[in-house]
Amino acid sequence: MTSLNSSFTLQNMEQSANLIGKTVDYTDASGKAASGAVSSVVMNNGQVQLDINNTDVNLSQLTGIE
Q: Which pTM does this prediction carry?
């Protein structure tokens, strides 16, 4: 099971890396719509997060890719 989780996390990381340089739409922490360019992808507490405008955004917050 641990191997499966690691594989899934790695796959998410690889897919997220394809978003670097692209503009995405997301819901920010206050619930408002926001957008910005993805500058990097990081792993934080086992979760893949995108760095957008110096803010860590979870993949679950994405609403679109421009």
A: 0.80
